[in-house]
Amino acid sequence: MSMRRRSLLGLGVAAATGVGTSLLGGSAAAGTLSPRMASPRQAPTAQFAIGVRQFNWSRGNRQLTTKIFYPASGAAGGNPIPNAPIANGVFPIAEWSHGMGCNSDCYSSQTHDLAAAGFICPAPSFSDNTNIGSVYNGNWSKDVSEVLTRTLALNTTAGDPFAGHIDTRAGVGVSGHSMGGMTTHGLLTAWPDNRIVAAVPVACVDMGNPAGLHAKVLFIHGDHDPTCDYNSARAAYAELPSPKAFLTHVGADHGQYLTPDYRYYAQTKNTFLDWFRWGLYGDTAARDRLQGDATSNGTSWQAALT
Predict the structure, then answer these.
(1) Per-residue pLDDT tens for 142-199?
(2) What is the pLDDT of residue 39?
(3) Lowest mean pLDDT among 14-18, 29-33, 127-131, 287-291
């Protein structure tokens, strides 16, 4: 990747505004998981209550405080319940990475939506959350790989509440916004993790050449983004093989489309969740809803799904 492509995230990074406090939020180890296509099954149709657990992990000298949001037993709705019993079932992993100046609580709309829809969502808080250099040198991407490894291991940890409830066979999903979106794209390019079968980089810039992973990749971006260049994300999209899609919020800035009060938030939410339902549950009905999910007067949709 040329230096020109890397420079597309400009000096305006520190001035980003929007979701939460702020919006910006070698190969990665593959671990023991051998990913395959998800066995087709219908993703859960009912909403779950949301549980949350916190883990104080690390990778070398890097602290990886991680909250895991997950489907919990009990009535749907309300705030996450600490250490709530996990719901009956086996659920795939869909990770979320925050942006600059943020932590695992900044993007509650995305992490809570994933858990309520039937996904186990680890959300790390990166210890150097204002250091874009740690994104460009791969530390954040490598941190995510470590969090995925630790989360998957809970499935076979004797006595752990998640034991037997994590789908370890269908691969994993990753997603994130701005610096978190760059981290996500880095896991598909410069620091690949071959466990990944579904990814959603949001407001990212191009982090390098595709590494050949067999992943379904959805980009989400505003075409008036002053922080992460829209054309850089378009170039990243063009380089990837199908299946892939690009949801553009026309006239939108760096992340207003991630907030529930935004006029076209439903297009973000429904497309985001159905992408993971297709990628991680193999739910073809979710795939067939994608164009309808994404379509509105304020969006445009491009896809190559086969």
Answers:
(1) 999 999 999 999 999 999 999 999 999 989 999 999 999 999 999 999 999 999 999 9
(2) 63
(3) 14-18
Structure token pair of residue 38: 């998800």
Q: In what order do the strands lie in the sheet with 196-202?
A: 172-177, 196-202, 216-222, 244-249, 299-304
Percent of the chain with pLDDT over 70: 87
Domain edges within the chain: 50-304
Question: What kind of architecture, by CATH, is found in domain 50-304?
Answer: 3-Layer(aba) Sandwich (3.40)
Examine the pLDDT at 138 and tell me if it is beyond 70: yes
